[in-house]
């Protein structure tokens, strides 16, 4: 009996989801991996800085922000965004703990579509592709536009099923 082998996208996204289980954030577990060719170069997840109480210990530090629904338009429609400022995002941690030389030409697999700030950082990091699973609708339009302008491949995995017991369901 021969078993089917997972394709590379599924393999690396599974690893990103397993990495996300290290997060102690009660709102959302995010994991990311850096891959060059088929070689795994680094992993990271979202959480408080090292040596500082995390959200599960000290509570989330939520701030509310309002921004135009469509950046640069004359529309007055605003979007309310809530975010935790105690947490360093998984993508930011990945960039902090990997070398630029390793990122050149690499692919980032991340459980969630990057927010605007992380997308900006990734766009300048040397990577050539971002693969994600869960969308982040609050920043989708402007992040997609940035990736197109920058010439980076940016894609959501279709028909992907995360490993059992790796998703936080009550996120933001």
From TrEMBL:
Chain residues that bind Zn(2+): 89, 115, 118
| Necessary cofactors | Zn(2+)
InterPro entries per record: APOBEC/CMP_deaminase_Zn-bd, CMP_dCMP_dom, Cytidine_deaminase-like, dCMP_deaminase, dCMP_deaminase-rel, Deoxycytidylate_deaminase_dom
Q: Which GO terms describe its cellular component?
A: cytoplasm
Matching PANTHER family, A to Z?
Answer: DEOXYCYTIDYLATE DEAMINASE (PTHR11086:SF18), DEOXYCYTIDYLATE DEAMINASE-RELATED (PTHR11086)
The record's similarity note reads: Belongs to the cytidine and deoxycytidylate deaminase family.
Q: What is this protein called?
A: Deaminase
